[in-house]
Amino acid sequence: MVALPPWTAFGSFTSLPTLAGQNTSPPSEKVFTQHFIIQVPPTTGGYYDPSYGVTYTNACNFETNAVAGYAFKESYRASTQNFEVREASGCNITFKVFSTN
Amino acid sequence: MVHGIRFVPLLTALSLSLSALAAVGNNPPLTVESRFNGAGSAVTSQGRVKLELREVRTDVVLPDGPAKLSVLVLFEPNSGAFLWRLDLADVSASLRALQFADGQAAFLKDGEIIHFRAMDGPPRLFVLEFRGHASSMDDAEAQALKAAGESTKHRGWLDPGPNTRVISLLNLDRDFTVPPLSVATSIMPKVTDVRWDADAHHWVVTLKARWTAEVILDANYNVVSMRKIE
Fold first, then answer.
1. Contacts of B26 (CB under 8 A, 6+ apart)
2. Which residues of A touch B15 (CB under 8 A)?
3. In Å, how far is A8's CA from the nearest CA of chain B?
4. Residue, of A5 and B228, whose pLDDT is higher
């Protein structure tokens, strides 16, 4: 886990004091290519996010509560990457199911 | 996915500050800071030809402040064909030229250079075609700097322009660039080969990321097929 840096501004982004998770508070990493959560058995319903200890009822609920935006990588430099970001709006995410069976 | 981050009001683009520019009335001049000269090659139907490469690192004052931009010029001396591409500058004065040599491709066809590069996050193939003609690399650079300066007048200048086709590679599967259990790592795909099949009238582009894939495009760069080949 990357240690939390002593600043909160990253270019056009500001890291907010959000949920504790990933063994840090607040988490230092907030941009991901993928995120894994657990589908609770159908008799109970919903989804559990072990990274943050919270639950979601469905994909749209996850997107509304956990996603700030969607990033497209635009350019690579030696030590940085540049993204174009669209703020989250509506329900766009669908879950891909990985079975442990 | 961007999780738990507040956007700066009125800016929706992280990179841009630069691309979120308001249009400006005057053409911002690009001031040359340094030049890196290199060599590369372009594919033709008859084999490879030598290309002269020049990366021009420039300073420019944009409405939201000073910026450093890189103009990469590809010049084929026999035909005089050239192509340029504008990007953010790196601390290295030769990064864009090295990126071209390491994982991009150019094809010289009918007096025009067609440039192929790929990007992850999400995986995309960019095809840039440009019908520039110059008497020398210096002439090509002068034309490129003028046009590049003009392009920075427009909002979203770093976005692909009208000469660029952006082709989604998601049908190759997300795992093509993202290791299955990785949440923060992705691999930039490389264009390892390009050829024009004159009989079938289509492009065959070979890409390498976590595996090798082949993308076939028609003459207008529409996807005909894409598949994993090894």
1. none
2. 11, 74-75, 82-84
3. 10
4. B228
